[in-house]
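During data preparation, we tokenized the protein backbone, and the record follows.
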Amino acid sequence: MTTPAVFSDAWTRAQAVAEAQKLKLLDPAGQNITVPDGPYWVMETAAGLADRAGAGEPVDLENGTIWLHLLVPKGTGTLEALELRKAMSVAFRQATNLPTGILYRGHMFDPPDLSQAGNRVRFSLGIDYEYQDILT
């Protein structure tokens, strides 16, 4: 499970980009009753490893991926979706004022599945992170 400090920082950064794009950022556990008619973002996180730095060490190491999914109505076109996703990526690549212990690393651009059911196409951005926390 992703540490709350990582989720909070990533959410704040993603929210700022979504607002600049005039799009909503939805929390999949937020019990959203309705979704926007146009494009919108959904954020998920996944921790790949969370463990002590060594036996008896007070440092907890965590790495994982922040997933930001841009969902666009079918027929919207690919170029606009790619531009929106690129802007989100740039915001994390140029991140400043990071909280102590958080580093954002490589980015993955997951291609959409054009045969997926439904009326939306998903363009995903995966942002690898590392987090070091001093256990108290």
About this structure: The longest helix spans residues 4-20.
